[in-house]
Amino acid sequence: MSDKFELGMKVRRKVLGDAHVDRAEATKTEFDQPFQALITESAWGSVWANDRISLRERSMLTLALLAATGNFEEIPMHIRACANTGASQQDVMEVFQHVAVYCGVPRANHAIKLAKQTFEEMK
Question: Which InterPro entries does the UniProt record give (predicted)?
């Protein structure tokens, strides 16, 4: 495994938690192994591992981008990650208000619904 992969796995575990990563690794197959390596090295080992901005800021950016582009499936995962990155519920609401103004109320509304459900589940 490459250094980027090792770093990516370390950051991925820090942000998403061991339980999430262990579940993802347990379901990895020969078919999706190349994709898993790609995201571990690029998303986690390059982007998330870069220390120019904080993990809190990366969480906020990621949530905004997911909501803005209508990629709602990963929002709950990244809401749960906020517990590890330091992004607060107030931060998340600020993110989605920004999305509402610049990308549309329906997308922000759906993201807020998912965030509320996920925060409730996390209690």
Answer: 4CMD/NDH-1_regulator, AhpD-like, CMD-like, Decarb_PcaC
What tokens does 72 get? Answer: 């709602």
| Those residues with Cβ within 8 angstroms of residue 82's Cβ, 6 or more apart along the chain or in another chain | 59, 88, 89, 91, 92
Vertex 82 angle, CA 72 and 77, to 5°: 35
Question: How many percent of the chain have pLDDT more than 70?
Answer: 100
Q: Kindly list the structural domains of the chain, giving each domain's residue range(s) and its CATH number in brackets, ordered by start.
A: 1-50 (no CATH), 54-122 (1.20.1290.10)
